[in-house]
Design goal:
One of its GO terms (molecular function) is metal ion binding. By secondary structure, the chain is an alpha+beta fold. It is built from six helices and 33 strands. The structure holds 2-acetamido-2-deoxy-beta-D-glucopyranose (10 copies).
Length: 586
């Protein structure tokens, strides 16, 4: 009976069906068994990665997939509390919390630099989540606040913070009055997005009927002893006309990668993994980051890429010249790529799109909005932008080329038509001569010279050259223009009357001196034509050039970061960058 009920339930809930279908080996989960369990005391996880008790030390988050930099080797935590014990902070237990009411700072210090992306605080009292302050020390010994701080409330005790530190950090200090209620702290080191992805190599080595395929480098086992059969190995048979010997990993969806760890073999022959070239390619096969291995190989390579562009392919190319005309070899015991979903996607498989309120960027486990597109109140995103504003947290002003400066709260395009431009909703094409106003749907007054006018206000426009030597001045002429305020209208009326009076006076003086002309159809226009000798047909009006702000601040070219990151702190492992010139194809 229970089985039948479960069966029906799973049949109706599609995701459940696909998850149940995957009978994963012990220690693995996911629809393709592509995720590794990280449970305390190696307990088995369920099909969602959830552990019976808690995550293994050093892991946290959804399915225990995120590496925790507060407990990584070389991390040192200290607090301002009287007691020196900090185990309550890192025991993954939200019921063991700070006991010292005077606690006002927590410091995490690392013995080597790490890229920072986000951190998680669990606290008894989330009513003051805005009051945490984060101070970072970068590997260049610079201090940074949390730049462009974003926060997302995950549940009643959990809040995530994201900072844009485009640098590796060696220290983080958290301060603020809310610290008294803190129970747990996690700092994300990303999750291994290389695991069980599609790996290929140029020819596979076989020995004693045992082959060493490319997939052994992403099997989750970093054991560095080759004969334990956990390392990939390219063929030692010299092949003719093959591409350079290489190992290539293709990710099922593009990911952002901040950190790479490569385990070389340690039993023998580790010198083979020197002088290699590591390339990271985007979906268009353009290199977004590259690295040249050193002359003397390391057993473990730890590289910070600080790469925020989505990555699709990782390739390791052998360039070392082997003696005895043997082919160069690539042997990899494990490749870890620590990163996360590309912006706009979330979930363990990075297949869920972010909600429309924050479609370019959301919390990568829950899909919650860190910031709100079209809403003013992150992380809740419930209050829509005020009129004339749009974008992330409504920080952008609508373009003045929009009618009534009104635009779409999410996209920023003019939603009520244009003002002085003819092509809604883009509003980039200025009104043709003789047109003005809302979508250029009004004709300039026939009283305007050549029936042209200012394309936003409809005011007649011409230049008068007062003398030959002084500069021309722009004069606005009323000419029966609609849409003017009463004050301006009166001023304009007085102007009209005085000009007409002057014109009439000149006209009478003219008549007095000469014989009257036969017929004058439009005295106003005619006198204007003679009085004002020069007329600039249309003044270039730069004020109304369209102005759009980009919606997404995340996916921007990172080439400068890329370049800088090669002079990373792993000096002994970083060969001079000039030796291999990276291809920053755009
Ligand atoms: C939570 O914090 C707020 C402001 O800091 C305070 O007013 C409130 O009493 C606190 N609640 C608890 C249960 O400590
Ligand atoms: C970093 O800068 C601080 C002062 O800002 C200085 O006291 C400290 O010695 C510096 N540390 C290193 C490793 O340069
Ligand atoms: C390799 O496998 C083949 C066929 O399965 C067998 O005949 C051969 O003896 C094996 N060689 C070794 C070294 O095990
Ligand atoms: C791996 O190889 C080493 C050395 O050969 C051996 O001591 C160790 O037990 C092996 N480990 C596994 C998991 O096979
Ligand atoms: C990238 O390169 C691979 C092989 O090198 C090729 O199969 C793939 O089609 C290329 N992708 C693009 C977008 O050019
Ligand atoms: C590489 O190792 C050799 C021998 O151990 C040493 O003489 C040489 O200086 C090293 N080269 C570099 C660049 O570290
Ligand atoms: C938006 O307009 C307001 C006033 O109209 C101004 O204070 C603010 O700086 C503008 N913001 C941007 C991003 O231009
Ligand atoms: C212009 O926008 C304001 C809000 O900024 C609004 O109150 C007003 O109704 C709008 N006027 C028209 C004609 O759309
Ligand atoms: C201007 O264009 C917008 C968008 O196409 C339209 O909604 C609006 O009614 C137009 N207004 C006028 C006066 O043509
Ligand atoms: C971080 O890098 C991104 C992309 O290059 C850039 O848009 C952003 O302004 C940078 N932030 C800081 C604080 O430098």
């Amino acid at each position: 009976m229970g089985f039948i009920f479960k069966f029906i339930l799973c049949f109706t809930v599609l995701t459940c069906a696909s998850r149940v279908a995957a009978q994963c080996p012990v220690g693995w989960f996911g629809s393709k068994c592509q995720f590794m369990c990280h449970c305390e005391s190696n307990a088995h996880c369920d099909s969602y990665g959830q552990c019976p008790t808690k995550c293994n030390a050093g892991w946290f988050g959804q399915g225990c997939q995120y590496e925790d930099l507060t407990t990584v080797d070389g991390a040192l935590i200290s607090t301002s509390a009287v007691s020196s014990s900090t185990s309550w902070l890192t025991d993954q237990d939200v019921t063991t919390c700070n006991e010292d009411p005077s606690l006002d700072s927590i410091t995490v210090q690392w013995d080597k630099p790490y890229p920072f992306t986000w951190l998680r605080i669990q606290a008894k009292n989330l009513s003051a989540v805005d009051q945490f302050k984060f101070l970072f020390t970068t590997s260049g010994n610079k201090s940074h606040n949390c730049i462009n701080q974003l926060q997302a409330i995950i549940d009643s005790v959990t809040v995530d913070y994201r900072c844009e530190i485009n640098d590796t950090v060696t220290r983080l200090i958290i301060t603020g009055p809310s610290l008294y209620s803190v129970c747990s702290l996690y700092i994300s080191g990303g999750r291994n997005v290389a695991l069980k992805q599609i790996a290929q190599q140029t020819g596979t080595y076989t020995f004693d009927n045992i082959s060493y395929p490319a997939s052994l480098a992403v099997d989750g086992d970093a054991n560095p002893y080759f004969h334990n059969k956990t390392c990939s190995h390219t063929t030692d048979i010299l092949q003719e006309s093959v591409p350079p010997v290489s190992w290539t990993l293709t990710l099922d969806t593009p990911r952002v990668i901040n950190r790479i760890t490569i385990y070389n073999r340690a039993d023998c022959c580790s010198d083979r993994l020197s002088n290699f070239i590591l390339e990271i390619l985007d979906t268009n096969n353009h290199t977004v980051w590259s690295y040249e291995g050193p002359v003397n190989a390391s057993l473990v390579y730890e590289l910070n890429t600080l790469q925020q562009k989505p990555v699709k392919t990782i390739r390791i190319i052998a360039t070392r010249i082997e003696v005895n005309t043997k082919p160069p070899l690539v042997t990899l015991c494990e490749v870890f790529l620590f990163g996360d979903c590309e912006p706009g996607a979330w979930g363990l498989g990075c297949t869920s799109p972010c909600p429309t309120e924050c479609r370019d960027f959301c919390q990568q486990e829950s899909g919650k909005c860190f910031k709100c597109l079209g809403y003013v109140d992150p992380p809740r995103c419930t209050t829509a932008c005020l009129p004339n504003t749009w974008g992330i947290n409504c920080q952008s002003n609508c373009s003045s080329s929009c009618h009534n400066t009104s635009c779409d709260k999410v996209t920023g395009v003019c939603d009520k038509g244009c003002s002085g431009y003819s092509n809604p909703p883009a509003c980039t094409a200025e009104c043709a001569s003789g047109k003005w106003g809302h979508n250029c749907s009004y004709e300039c007054s026939s009283f305007c010279i050549r029936q042209t006018c200012e394309r936003v206000t409809g005011l007649c426009q011409y230049t008068s050259e007062t003398t030959a030597t002084t500069a021309t001045t722009v004069v606005s002429d009323p000419c029966n223009c609609p849409g003017l305020g009463p004050g301006i209208g009166i001023g304009i009326a007085i102007g009209v009357v005085s000009i007409v009076l002057v014109d009439i006076a000149i006209y009478f003086i003219f008549i007095k001196r000469r014989q009257p002309p036969a017929t004058v159809n439009d005295p106003v226009e005619k006198t204007h034509g003679t009085q004002l000798q020069q007329y600039d047909s249309l003044k270039e009006n730069t004020q109304y050039k369209p102005h759009y702000e980009t919606v997404d601040p995340i996916d921007i070219d990172k080439t400068s970061v890329t370049q800088g990151s090669t002079s990373s702190p792993y000096e002994n492992e970083v060969a001079p960058y000039e030796r291999y010139s990276p291809k920053h194809n755009k």
